[in-house]
Amino acid sequence: MTNNFTRRSRKGILFVISAPSGGGKSTLVKRVIGSLPNMQLSVSHTTRSIRQGEEEGRDYYFVSKDTFKGMIERGEFLEWADVFGNYYGTSYKSIETATAAGKDLILDIDIQGADQLRKKGCECSYIFVLPPSISLLMARLEARGTNSQDDIKTRIGKAREEISHYKDYDYIVVNDRLEEAAGSLESIIVAERARLKNMTEEIRGLDL
Asked: pTM value?
């Protein structure tokens, strides 16, 4: 017998992923978005300069500080933060458009932004990516070749402070081996999608 039913689409889930600079978060996120269906990276606004290989609207929305401050004044950001002298923020509009279409969104934000979301009562899955050691974190920053030694020392100091907040998150992924870390992150996302509260609409559409 053929079941005739319409599978109802659910509202998208928000996955907040934080990590210290050099923690390998961006690489993990790209891997997961490329392997899991219906995943999308939330594109943030930033005041920092565009880097080689980046594209407007794909990696970030690059704006001036005056434009960013105007958006803050108009209350257009769900969260925003000042990171090493540059502003980064997630707009309400970008989140609402994607989640209403049933897209699961990854918010690549730091501990400041994650804390803002918690205080606003945002329903998210909070994931922290830990490096296996501070020494490896330093090696990764040095390997980039884009940061001075003073800048690296500043980032390591900030990383230590950020790592101390890992207990505020729902899940921890230790990024030691990329394949294993990516697998752990994918498992978290798949499990969250199967939680009862996220399956309600689909269950309603089943011929049961």
From this structure: 0.82
